[in-house]
Amino acid sequence: MKQTLDELVPAVQASLYRAAFSICRNRQDAENVVQDTFLIYDRSAKQFDSPAHIHAWLLRVAVNRAKDVCRSFWRRNRVSLDETIAQIPFETPQDSDVFQAVMRLPENQRIVIYLFYYEDRPIHEIARILRTRENTVKSRLHRARLNLKKLLQEGWNDDEP
Question: Which domains occur in the chain, in start order?
Fold first, then answer.
């Protein structure tokens, strides 16, 4: 099974963008990663079992591509995370605080937080997407939660007089 890009792009584009952004932390790089991911899919002869299998494969490609972009020599002198955050509309100040805290996490923790909470992926699927063991995903998720708690508490304590 292979879906056409006309069917696929509207269904998964936002999800791939968020995954790429959680790694790249830059809007332009994340957009490029999404475009590259769709090009890789379009050129691939791979057949898939289901739409869920396609989505998981695309997430893995996007994550790997985003990591490549982050290691790139050309990535220097890009727009800062603070400038990017200033352009994102948040419904509440708390949404902005949580987003900023997640973006301050190490990359391996950011991506598991994203896949687990925003994509609602189970641990075993995250492990498959990241090509790692389930216990590794569980420990990264645990550390990420602890770090988020600490980061958010620091932010709230700074607000108090």
Answer: 1-83 (1.10.1740.10), 89-161 (1.10.10.10)
